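From the methods appendix. Each design record in this collection lists the discretized structure first, followed by the designed amino acid sequence. Records were kept in a plain field format so they could be parsed without special tools. The example shown here is representative of the layout used throughout.

RECORD:
C-ALPHA CELLS (422 positions):
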C-alpha cells in the first residue's frame, strides 16, 4: 500500500480547481438566499439505521455502498451517503414542525459511497442539497425544480435536460408493482442476475438498471403514470402546469424511479450531455413518508441533490465562466535585510487595506523575486533596495504595462490603491 497516495476513488481538490468550487458554492449560496433557503451544517456520520431504514435496505446505496464502522463503544455508524435522511432527522430532532412550513434548508459538503470510481463518480464527492420540509403543495416541488434550473442558469450551464416522472405513493404503487411484475415475469430469464434478484424484493429498481439488455426489455414496461391514484395524478399535473408557467422545458420519462426508496410522487433529474455515462448533474423528488420510516410523525418533503464535481466538470466542458481566479495584486521585492524589515511593515500595511500582497522569505535574488512576481501574476512589483531606503521611496513597477515609477513612502499606499483600481 502506497500511503503517499490517497485511497482509491477519493482525490485532493487542488487550488487550481478549488477556486472554481468556491464560485459554484458562492453562487449556490446566493440562489439559496433568493429562494429563502437557510444553510445548515449536518454531521458527516449518523446512526447506520437512519440510512438503512430511510434510504431502504434493498437499494444499492445501503446494500453495497455505505462506509459503515463500529465506534469504540460498539455503535454502528455510517459516513453519510446522502443528506436527505439527515435533513429529516435534523427537522425532527429540533422540533421544526413548530416553525412556518415548509422549513427550507440547504447544505453542501462531502458524501461517501463505495462505488466503482470513474469520470464523475467518486467515493468521496460533494453534494449541494436543498430540501423543503413540511408541505404537500405541488408548488413546492416546482420551487425545488426551479431552484436547480435557476442555479444552473446562474452558473451559465446550457444544454441541460430536465426529466420528470411520478413514482406514486403507497396507495397506487402496489397496483403498479403487480403490473410491472407481470410484465417483467414474462421476460425474467433475459434479465441480468441483479435484476432477477430485484424481482421479488424491489421490482421498481429494475427500471433503473443500466444493463443494455434490461434497458431494452424495460422500454416497453408499463409506466407508473398510468397507475397513479387521483391524488398523485393531480399532483403531477399541477407540477407540470407550473413548469409550463415558468417556461421550464422538461421530458417525461416513465422509467425514472431514482436509486433511493423514499421517493413518492415527483421524481426528477437534470442531465448533461457533457458527462458521459454519469450524466446526472442533479436528482431529487418528493419523499412524503421518509419521516415516518425513520420513526417520526408524517412530514412531507421534497428536495434535490446536485453533485459539485459534476457541475464543475460540465461547466469546464462548456467553457463556462468561473469569475476571477484569486491571485495576488502586489509582490514586494527586497534587496537586503534592511529592506526586508521595511518591506515587512509595508506588507502588513497593505494587507490591512485589504490588498492581496506577498513577498519572498527565502532570500532569492532580485531577479528571481521579480520572476516570482510575474509567475504569481502580480499586477505591481514594489521594489525596495538601498537606494529606495535612502531616498524614502518605493520603486513601483507595473507588470501589466512594464512602466516604473518612484513613489514617496507617505503616498505609497494611496498610489498602490489608485493604481490597482485604475
Ligand atoms: P443521488 O443522491 O444518488 O440522487 O445523487 C444526486 C447527485 O449527486 C447526482 O446527480 C450526482 O450529480 C451526484 N453524485 C451521486 N453519486 C456520486 C458519486 N459517486 N460521485 C460524484 N457525484 C455523485
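DESIGN:
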Amino acid at each position: 500500500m502506497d500511503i503517499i497516495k490517497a485511497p482509491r476513488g477519493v482525490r485532493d481538490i487542488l487550488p487550481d480547481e478549488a477556486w472554481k468550487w468556491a464560485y459554484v458554492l458562492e453562487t449556490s449560496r446566493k440562489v439559496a438566499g433568493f429562494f429563502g433557503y437557510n444553510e445548515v451544517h449536518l454531521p458527516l456520520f449518523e446512526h447506520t439505521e437512519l440510512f438503512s431504514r430511510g434510504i431502504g435496505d434493498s437499494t444499492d446505496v445501503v446494500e453495497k455502498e455505505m462506509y459503515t464502522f463500529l465506534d469504540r463503544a460498539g455503535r454502528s455508524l455510517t459516513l453519510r451517503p446522502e443528506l436527505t435522511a439527515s435533513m429529516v432527522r435534523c427537522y425532527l430532532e429540533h422540533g421544526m414542525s413548530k416553525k412556518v412550513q415548509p422549513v427550507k434548508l440547504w447544505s453542501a459538503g462531502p458524501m461517501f459511497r463505495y462505488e466503482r470510481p470513474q469520470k464523475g463518480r467518486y467515493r468521496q464527492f460533494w453534494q449541494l442539497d436543498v430540501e423543503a420540509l413540511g408541505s404537500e403543495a405541488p408548488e413546492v416541488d416546482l420551487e425545488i425544480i426551479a431552484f436547480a434550473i435557476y442555479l444552473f442558469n446562474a452558473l451559465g450551464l446550457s444544454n441541460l435536460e430536465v426529466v420528470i416522472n411520478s413514482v406514486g405513493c403507497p396507495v397506487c404503487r402496489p397496483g403498479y408493482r403487480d403490473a410491472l411484475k407481470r410484465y417483467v415475469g414474462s421476460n425474467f430469464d433475459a434479465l441480468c442476475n441483479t435484476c432477477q434478484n430485484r424481482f421479488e424484493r424491489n421490482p421498481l429498481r429494475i427500471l433503473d438498471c443500466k444493463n443494455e439488455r434490461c434497458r431494452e426489455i424495460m422500454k416497453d414496461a408499463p409506466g407508473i403514470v398510468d397507475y397513479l391514484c387521483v391524488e398523485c395524478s393531480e399532483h403531477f399535473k399541477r407540477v407540470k402546469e407550473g413548469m409550463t408557467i415558468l417556461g421550464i422545458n422538461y421530458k417525461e420519462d416513465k422509467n425514472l424511479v431514482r436509486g433511493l426508496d423514499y421517493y413518492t410522487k415527483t421524481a426528477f433529474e437534470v442531465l448533461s450531455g457533457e458527462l458521459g455515462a454519469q450524466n446526472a448533474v442533479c436528482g431529487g423528488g418528493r419523499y412524503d413518508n421518509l419521516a415516518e420510516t425513520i420513526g417520526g410523525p408524517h412530514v412531507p418533503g421534497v428536495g434535490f441533490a446536485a453533485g459539485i464535481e459534476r457541475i464543475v466538470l460540465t461547466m469546464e466542458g462548456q467553457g463556462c465562466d468561473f469569475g476571477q481566479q484569486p491571485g495576488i495584486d502586489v509582490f514586494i521585492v527586497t534587496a537586503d535585510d534592511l529592506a526586508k524589515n521595511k518591506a515587512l511593515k509595508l506588507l502588513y500595511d497593505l494587507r490591512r487595506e485589504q490588498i492581496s500582497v506577498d513577498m519572498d522569505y527565502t532570500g532569492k535574488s532580485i531577479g528571481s523575486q521579480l520572476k516570482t512576481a510575474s509567475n504569481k501574476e502580480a499586477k505591481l512589483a514594489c521594489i525596495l533596495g538601498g537606494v529606495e531606503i535612502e531616498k524614502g521611496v518605493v520603486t513601483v513597477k507595473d507588470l501589466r504595462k512594464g512602466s516604473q515609477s518612484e513613489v514617496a513612502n507617505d503616498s505609497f499606499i494611496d498610489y498602490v490603491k489608485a493604481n490597482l483600481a485604475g
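APPENDIX NOTE: Residues 102 and 134 are 5 Å apart (CA to CA).
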